[in-house]
Amino acid sequence: MYKDMIENLQKTGIKIKKDFFSLEEIDAPLLKGVNVLLESIDLKGSKLTPKGFLPTKIVKSIMDVAASVSERRYMGSQKRFLEEENISAGFARVVAQGLKLVKVQKGKLLLTKKGNEFLTLTPSEQYILLLYMALGINIGYFDRHQEAVCVQNSSVVMLQLLRDKDRNFRSVEVYAALLLDAYPMIDDAIDQLELLDYIEKDKFDIFVSIAETRLFERLFLPLGLVDMKVGKYPDVDKFAKSELLDTFMLEKNAINKELVLSKKLTKNFQEEIRKNRLEIDLFETTMYLFAQLSCVEASFKSSVQDTLMKKHLVIGTQKSIYEDFYKKLIDSVFTTFEEFSQLDTVGESRDDLVDKYKNMTDALFNLVNTTKPFNTVQNLHILPAFIFDILKLHYGLDNLSKEYILECSNTLGEEIAMDIGQLMLILDKLEKDAKKLKKNKPNFMQGVKEFLQTYMMIVLELKASTVL
Predict the structure, then answer these.
(1) pLDDT tens for residues 181-219?
(2) For the chain, what is the largest distance between any 2 Cα atoms, rounded to a whole number of angstroms?
(3) In terms of CB atoms within 10 Å, which of 21, 140, 194, 235 comes out highest?
């Protein structure tokens, strides 16, 4: 049953990490509460109160393990444990009944066959079932707020936003503002909220108030997806994504990290070229692709591949080998673009991305570097031509123009224009140095790395402007 739930969650945009399924323990109050509820029901069933609620003994047992931070701050003076007055117990029962793990019969709560099967599942399998059910429940059942479909419908995108941000404690107001910035269409739904008895006259404030109760305190906290820092008056409560959320959920724009260009990947490509005796210059082809794909969308991958294939008069099996290789290389370049264009949008730290970027440029350096400086510079000569060709094709900029850099600045922005100028200056210096040197020296090799880094900055900036 839980496999179907995984597919359904994926359809909503929730992508689950493989590592999640290896967890032996999951710190989620709702998960603990449901297990306590099911384990408290014997073969004869648990007798409910005359009004049909859980007995206080079971409610207390659930509260002991399932009360969230939000609830615990009010539990100090708690003297009675009634299901209708305790969110954790009520939520655990509603979810269990929704999954048909329990049923009511003749005034008793009975464990069903599905309930017995649930108790044999791993924690990760149990959690998948609970999460799917919890996301579909009308959380408004547990509070006195007005009906607010815009809040309920924001649960998955708000959760994704939490996942993609770094782990800083923020107020719900901040998260709500970030949400509207990413999905401005939600603002139209907020306009439908009614003022009712609220003191606030700003509908955004009403949205924040409902979201804090309904999403963060009543949904994300019980599921263990956020941590809460209780604010002392006049400070507000703040929330941050939990370790579980990072372990459970992939970034919205999750990519295959193994395809990001690196020293290891370039060695694999070189080995494939050698093994299959392919007539491909890996450095030149890779840099050509970075230029070409900087100004096109993913849908144009096949056309770029077709252009590369025109260089090879091959048929049959050998043609398929070339096509497969180019497809993998093109995917790698596109993935590399995705990786280094998301610096401020996902949870990955800036330091990690900087290290990966350095690994990539070092890989390119290893491909182009030779024992003779002159040969190295000759290999670099084609790179500016790749840039010039792509700018002429997509922006009508002719590098033979006397005002080329100024025209680039007016069309693409000053930063890209300065980088293009810097690229040519570095190449000119490398050419002069190569004429004097018979072997590589540290300053020359550093100049080559600076040239490659500048080239990469140009194509990354072009890619960013294409996306925008």
Answers:
(1) 777 777 767 766 666 555 556 778 888 888 888 889 889
(2) 97
(3) 140
What's the pLDDT tens digit per position in 285-300? 999 999 998 887 766 7
The per-residue pLDDT for 202 is 76
pTM of the model: 0.58
From residue 200, alpha-carbon distances to 196, 208, 210, 253 in Å are 10, 11, 12, 36
CA-based end-to-end distance of the chain: 42
92 close to 34: Cβ distance less than 8 angstroms: yes
CA 187/CA 207 separation, integer angstroms: 10
CA–CA gap between residue 102 and residue 37 (Å, rounded): 9
Contacts of 18 (CB under 8 A, 6+ apart): none
Q: Secondary structure of the chain in the HEC alphabet?
A: CHHHHHHHHHHCCCCECHHHHHCCCCCCHHHHHHHHHHHCCCCCCEECCCCCCCCHHHHHHHHHHHCCHHHHCCCCCCCCCCHHHCHHHHHHHHHHHHCCCEEEECCEEEECHHHHHHCCCCHHHHHHHHHHHHHHCCHHHHCCCCCCHHHHCCHHHHHHHHHHCCCCCECHHHHHHHHHHHCCCHHHHHCCCCCCCCCCCCHHHHHHHHHHHHHHHHHHCCCCCEEEECCCCCCCCEEEECHHHHHHECCCCCCCHHHCCCHHHHHHHHHHHHHHCCCCCHHHHHHHHHHHHCCCCHHHHHHHHHHHHCCCCCCHHHHHHHHHHHHHHHHHHHHHHHHHCCCCCCCCCHHHHHHHHHHHHHHHHHHHCCCCHHHHHHHHCHHHHHHHHHHHHHHCCCCCCCCHHHHHHHHHCHHHHHHHHHHHHHHHHHHHHHHHCCCCCHHHHHHHHHHHHHHHHHHHHHHHHHHC
